[in-house]
Amino acid sequence: MTNFLVRWGISSLSIFIVAHIVKGIEVSSTPTVLVIALVLGIINAFVRPLIILITLPINILTLGIFTFFINGALFLLVSKIVKGFVITGFWPAFWGYILFSIISFLLSLLVVSV
To answer: pTM, whole model, 2 decimals?
Structure first.
C-alpha cells in the first residue's frame, strides 16, 4: 500500500510540474492532479499493454518509436476523461508525456535513494 501511495504521489507531482512547464496543458486544481494521476495509472496498467500488443508490428518497424505516440494519445485520452484537465492538442500531450516520464523517473530515483 505504501508503494502505491509513493508512486501516486510521484505521478501527481510530475503532472503538476508538467502542467506548469508545457504550454497547452492546464490543470484546474490540486484534487484534479490526484485524479489525473490515478486515471493515468489505471489506463497505463490496463489499456496501454493492449494497445501496444495490437500495434506491435508498427512498433517493431519503427523500432519502438511508435510507443511515444501511443503514450501521447493516452495522455490526451486522460484529458478527455478528467474534468479540469485540458490539453489543447496532440503535440502538447506528446511532449507532456515525455516530460512526465522523465520527471517521474528522476523523482523515483530520488525517493529510492532517500
So the answer is: 0.92
